[in-house]
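Protocol step 4 of 5: obtain the predicted structure for the target chain.
Materials: sequence only (see below). No template structures provided, no constraints applied. The aim of this step is simply to have a reference model before the mutagenesis design in step 5. Sequence pasted as it appears in the construct record:
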Amino acid sequence: MIPSEEYMLGLVGHKFPGGNRTIDRWENYLLTDCTTSPQLEDGLVHPIALFHIPIQGVQTSIAELFDLGRVKETGSVGLDGYDWEFFKPLREEIEYRCEGEIVEVERLFTDSGKMYDRFVFSIELFDEDGEPVAKATSYWRLRRGKVEH
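Step 4 output (structure tokens):
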């Protein structure tokens, strides 16, 4: 069942629980290795970590995001893009405070008449001094299928 536009628009401003997240050395090593990039020096974290670290840091999951967006079927979610901002280097073994929320939802239709919801959430990471370190914004397409409108 397709969620109402009212429900979806009501998600804007939904704050995730928030929390703390440390990127362990072994985790950064494996992530970097998966990209076939050389390991970074001085405990620098590979940017690829911003795909999942922020989501875990705010104490949510991909499954919970799917539930919020009321998507169930395989292939019903697409990535329209992401924006990673770094204000300071992201480093291993430092505890980051994570805060985030859903910042935009818009119901749209493709030229062929298929409905989808643009679903945007943004998560910020702060260092131990409360200074911003990184911000990850994800733009998802929640596909609803072809509908008469």
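Step 4 remarks: Residues 114 and 145 are 5 Å apart (CA to CA). The two ends are 16 Å apart (CA to CA).
Proceed to step 5.
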